[in-house]
Design brief:
The protein is an alpha+beta fold. It is built from 2 helices and 12 strands. 13% of the residues lie in helices and 29% in strands. Helix 1 runs antiparallel to helix 2. The longest helix is centred in the last third of the chain and has 12 residues.
Amino acid sequence: MAWRFTQVETTGKSPAPRHLHASAIIDGTFFIMGGLNRLDVLQDAWALPLAEEPAKWRRLKLPKSKDLWQKRTYFGHTAYGSKLYLSAGTNHQNLNEVYDDVLVLDTEEETLTVLETLSFYCQIKGIKREQRYAMALDRAQAVDLGHVPHRFV
């Protein structure tokens, strides 16, 4: 069996070229978020319904809040159900600015929220990053994966 790539015909304003971004197909729609265009860190999200011919790009209207959807690249992502999860990453223009959050894009509601993790709890309580890491390590050392307790050092 030979692989064959085809170009999807699209209309409308398309997103800027990018790399180091999130992408996933959820319920027949192709989503992309964030990433890097040359030296510009992107803070956008786009949807392309693949069943339409031609498919029309649409920019999602997400909040541009420093506390929520920050410009980011080098982040992990995965799709589950109708949601796209983004985790961690960096601003790239300031590599000392490393994020330890988990964002959730609900593709049905087109909303972006923060998953309430230990890091999120500590952040809103004003606990410093170094203290958060120590708290996370303490909890991780007690994790039991069902057969052998694992310790992270």
